[in-house]
């Protein structure tokens, strides 16, 4: 008893040490709890998991994760064959596995599906309202094993077309006795010139003769980031140009022939593309990432084990976006009280320029000099937070040597809050001698007669308030049984119940109607001096010739001066004559008291306010076998999973009625209910005809449920900038596919592997977002009355139901198509070489994927046949490492070829896409003794830029850099 008391006292003291770590923690060294001998040992252990698995799986073990130089979990996963990542704010965010994007991949944490969503920049997808898991919420060090399961087994829950990613946190009974690990790191970014602290710790111990185990871990990272570059927010022209085109054209050369206004007019068959919003960008991110895990295990005897796991993560901070830009090239009509009636592209004169024809029928005004261009200085402030909780309880009991029952209960919650999203815009009108040049890899934009550093020259023109939230909640229960019928044959059966609820909430500035209020300012504000509401922003990394600094709105000063967060400020609202609004939302706007001019509500963003609830009940029967056929070892499994899904969707729309001269607009909920079922057979067979040479063959029917945002039955009208109507489609069919895999694996030496895997997926249907050409509002596909468009437009000039400016977007099912590819994997420690070269080793994998997907237009006709979106046809990863008793070093490279993001593209393009990337990282660890080690890491050593393109001619749409990061630190283990 005295001994147990001492152990409890020791645990309490160490817990106090852990408590000294800031109450936010990520990037922990808990990975070291897995007993392996260095990085090489962890690779060998991961190969053992791969070799012994019946399904095709790739594994990263504890030390493997802990010692890769990775900012978060997704960057660890990019080392796995077939896995590519997309990035936001300089770090990995989402996965693509074997060409299928994150929406086709399920992520399990300690056996339970978790949907973790965050908010990125608009260029990286913005707020995540899909099933895609945002891996940047977590640091890789919170987990001690990651499995990427690429073929299906009946015992694994449905929902994946690409893969199932299984994340496991550390467990105390896997550790021999007491363990304490801690680390501290300091990071430096060479673009932002900022320092970032990182701390982590883990403590674990066992009691009562190893029957009870307790483990805690925590980590914290603080990161300041500069993200700088330029963008165009697509290009305009082509088949869907800005109406009426430029006012005049002179001096523009095209194949030796002078262009005329007709070439740029919307009626011209050969309209020239030009940047929609040419701009210089600067993002400033301040992030903090916190994580904790806890585990209690009780094993009263060898037949019984109970495990209680808890996980907490908090990823948040602020992002400040600054743009020096022009909206002129995408605008028509009046855009300000002091501008001429022909404001927008209609007033612009082209003084000179350069037009190229990169492909037949596509011409681009890549450079030009212009008069009467309106300059804009825009500032956006975001306050962001993702908070994740998960608790799971698992129990296993063996009633005999041949019969075991496993039970599981779990609950998780993920809440994303963009509680502040505030945008202010300043304009200067009629700038002369404005120039842009996008003919080079690093564009230049100059602002001619504009006075960028005069607070009196700028005029406040727009204020947007767009806070938004996403709530995810899952509850799950499982019961599974295993019966060893005889040697080499085990039957498995189980039931699984899941209730998942997703709710999205979006607010805009609102006066109780569905009219946009962003450009509506209180009386006197447009003439208000911007002095006191400006601040200077520097652009140190722009190419020579671009402005190096400019005045931008000071959001914090504007909030105070204009009472932006006071929903009662100037409560008197303009009443729409002969119109009455009725709403189910709580709002003072529908009372005689009115509401403030900066009130926010969901009324003007109805399509982004919805709830989707799914209840899934599934069961499976599976047979595992392990035998010899004619002296050849054969093992694997076959079985069937049956699942029923009940879907309930809730959205909002506007019902318009008239009684005499009075129009009544009622915001009404709309609901949709459906039930569908799937029968999903699968098999996995492993044959070992020669020792250490394995052949695998697998096949399955699989399904993945459609994106959550796609199931919204509501419609949103937006008249800020483009005039759009956007809706979901609750009748979207799930993705269903037949898959087949064939592979060969040769384990030619200890820690050595050469493998080749081919895979084929025949996907029955995909989902694409269709966006219509510009038309009048009455052409909308939902039968909405023109009165809804007129209500949304309000008094906004150039906006009405009869204007040919409306586009309609909604998801549709497409015929689907095949996705096929090959993976090549090689890893080997160079122990066959003489010293010191025997301390080296290498890992390399290559994935080649292709697809042939049909994309439809609104009439259901095939408009394009191209690659699947988010599919990179080539990706590879390579690592060269060195390890001895004291020194461990490695350098890693990850390449991803370009991929499409939208087909057909918007604004008249055939496609939109993302350019290829090559990221190089390195790390060195020097072990002083068994307790202490020093670390040095470098990330993004080539300062890889993130680029996006418009059209297959690859017009530049977005190009940013975030700089290199260097981290130095110390590790402690006891």
From TrEMBL:
TonB-dependent receptor plug domain location? 50-154
| Principal place of residence | membrane
Q: Which UniProt keywords apply?
A: Cell outer membrane, Membrane, Receptor, Signal, TonB box
Q: Where, by residue number, does the polypeptide cross the bilayer?
A: none
Q: Which residues form a coiled coil?
A: none
List the signal peptide residues: 1-25
* Localization terms from the record: Cell outer membrane
Q: Does the keyword GTP-binding apply?
A: no
Q: Does the keyword Signal apply?
A: yes
Query: By its UniProt entry, which InterPro entries does this protein fall under?
Result: Beta-barrel_TonB (IPR000531), Beta-barrel_TonB_sf (IPR036942), Plug_dom (IPR012910), Plug_dom_sf (IPR037066), TonB_rcpt_bac (IPR010104)
Annotated TonB-dependent receptor-like beta-barrel domain residues: 422-941
> In which domain of life is the source organism classified?
Bacteria
What family is reported?
A: Belongs to the TonB-dependent receptor family.
Any idea what this protein is called? TonB-dependent receptor
What species is given as this protein's source? Answer: Rhizomicrobium electricum
């Amino acid at each position: 008893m005295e001994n147990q008391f001492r152990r409890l006292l020791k645990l309490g003291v160490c817990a106090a040490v852990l408590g000294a770590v800031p109450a936010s923690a990520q990037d922990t060294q808990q990975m070291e709890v897995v007993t392996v001998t260095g990085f090489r040992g962890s690779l060998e252990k991961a190969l053992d998991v791969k070799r012994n698995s019946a399904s095709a799986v790739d594994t990263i073990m504890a030390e493997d994760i802990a010692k890769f130089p990775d900012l978060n979990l997704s960057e660890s996963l990019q080392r796995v064959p077939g896995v590519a990542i997309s990035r936001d704010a300089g770090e990995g965010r989402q996965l693509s596995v074997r060409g299928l994007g994150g929406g086709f991949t399920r992520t399990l944490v300690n056996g339970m599906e978790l949907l973790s969503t965050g908010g990125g920049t608009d260029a990286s997808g913005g707020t995540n309202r899909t099933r895609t898991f945002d891996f940047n919420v977590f640091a890789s060090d919170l987990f001690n094993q990651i499995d990427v399961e690429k073929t299906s087994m009946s015992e694994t829950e449905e929902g994946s077309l690409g893969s199932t990613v299984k994340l496991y946190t550390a467990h105390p009974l896997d550790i021999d006795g007491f363990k304490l690990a801690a680390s501290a790191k300091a990071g430096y970014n060479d673009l932002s010139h900022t320092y970032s602290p990182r701390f982590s710790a883990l403590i674990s111990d066992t009691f009562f003769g190893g029957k009870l185990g307790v483990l805690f871990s925590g980590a914290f990272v603080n990161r300041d980031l500069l993200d700088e570059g330029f963008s165009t927010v697509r290009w305009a022209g082509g088949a869907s140009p800005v109406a009426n085109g430029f006012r005049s054209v002179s001096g523009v050369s095209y194949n030796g022939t002078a262009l005329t206004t007709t070439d740029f007019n919307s009626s011209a068959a050969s309209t020239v593309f030009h940047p929609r919003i040419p701009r210089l960008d600067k993002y400033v991110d301040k992030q903090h990432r916190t994580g904790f895990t806890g585990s209690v295990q009780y094993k009263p005897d060898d037949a019984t084990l109970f495990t209680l796991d808890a996980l907490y993560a908090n990823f948040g901070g602020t992002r400040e976006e600054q743009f020096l830009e022009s909206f002129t090239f995408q605008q028509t009509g009046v855009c300000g009280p002091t501008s001429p009636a022909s404001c927008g592209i209609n007033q612009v004169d082209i003084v000179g320029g350069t037009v190229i024809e990169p492909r037949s029928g596509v011409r681009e005004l890549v450079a030009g000099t212009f008069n009467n261009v309106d300059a804009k200085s825009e500032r956006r402030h975001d306050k962001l937070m993702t908070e994740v909780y998960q608790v799971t309880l698992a129990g296993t009991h063996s009633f005999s040597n041949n019969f075991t029952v496993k039970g599981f209960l779990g609950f998780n919650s993920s809440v994303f809050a963009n509680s502040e999203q505030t945008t202010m815009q300043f304009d200067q009108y009629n700038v002369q001698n404005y120039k842009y040049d996008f003919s080079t890899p690093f564009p230049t934009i100059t602002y001619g007669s504009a006075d960028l550093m005069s607070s009196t020259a700028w005029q406040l023109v727009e204020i947007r308030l767009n806070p938004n939230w996403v709530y995810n909640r899952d509850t799950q229960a499982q019961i599974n049984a295993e019966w060893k019928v005889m040697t080499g044959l085990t039957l498995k059966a189980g039931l699984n119940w899941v209730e998942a609820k997703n709710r999205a909430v979006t607010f805009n500035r609102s006066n109780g109607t569905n009219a946009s209020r962003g450009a509506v300012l209180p009386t006197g504000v447009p003439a208000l001096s911007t002095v006191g509401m400006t601040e200077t922003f520097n652009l140190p990394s722009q190419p020579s010739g671009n402005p190096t600094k400019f005045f931008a709105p000071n959001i914090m000063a504007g909030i105070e001066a204009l009472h932006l967060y006071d929903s009662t400020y100037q409560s008197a609202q303009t009443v729409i004559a002969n119109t009455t609004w009725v709403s189910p939302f709580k709002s003072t706007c529908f009372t005689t008291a009115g509401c403030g001019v900066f009130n926010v509500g969901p009324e003007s963003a109805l399509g982004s306010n919805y709830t989707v609830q799914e209840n899934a009940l599934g069961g499976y029967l599976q047979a595992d076998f392990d035998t010899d056929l004619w002296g050849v070892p054969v093992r694997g499994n076959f079985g069937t999973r049956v699942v029923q899904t009940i879907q309930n969707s809730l959205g909002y729309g506007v019902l318009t009625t008239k009684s005499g001269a009075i129009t009544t607009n009622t915001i009404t909920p709309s609901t949709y209910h459906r039930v569908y079922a799937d029968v999903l057979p699968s098999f996995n067979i492993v044959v070992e005809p020669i020792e250490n040479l394995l052949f695998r063959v697998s096949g399955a029917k699989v399904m993945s449920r459609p994106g959550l945002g796609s199931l919204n039955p509501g419609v949103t009208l937006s008249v800020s900038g483009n005039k759009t109507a956007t809706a979901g489609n609750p009748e979207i069919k799930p993705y269903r596919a037949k898959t087949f895999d064939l592979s060969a694996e040769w384990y030619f030496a200890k820690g050595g592997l050469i493998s080749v895997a081919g895979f084929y997926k025949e996907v029955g249907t995909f989902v694409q977002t269709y966006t219509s050409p510009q038309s009048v509002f009455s052409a909308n596909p939902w039968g909405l009355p023109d009165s809804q468009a007129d209500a949304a437009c309000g008094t906004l000039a150039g906006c009405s139901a009869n204007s040919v400016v409306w586009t309609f977007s909604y998801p549709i099912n497409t015929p689907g198509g095949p996705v096929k590819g090959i993976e090549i994997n090689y890893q080997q420690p160079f122990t066959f070489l003489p010293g010191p070269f025997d301390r080296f080793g290498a890992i390399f994998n290559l994935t080649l994927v292709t697809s042939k997907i049909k994309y439809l237009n609104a009439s259901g006709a095939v408009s394009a046949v191209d690659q699947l979106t988010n599919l990179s046809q080539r990706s590879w990863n390579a690592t060269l490492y060195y390890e001895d008793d004291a020194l461990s070093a490695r350098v890693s490279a990850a390449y991803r070829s370009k991929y499409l993001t939208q087909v057909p593209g918007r604004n008249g393009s055939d496609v939109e896409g993302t350019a290829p990337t090559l990221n190089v990282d390195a790390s060195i660890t020097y072990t002083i003794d068994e307790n202490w080690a020093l670390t040095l890491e470098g990330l993004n050593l080539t300062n890889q830029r993130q680029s996006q393109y418009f059209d297959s001619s690859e017009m530049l749409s977005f190009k940013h850099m975030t700089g290199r990061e260097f981290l130095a630190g110390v590790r402690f283990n006891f």
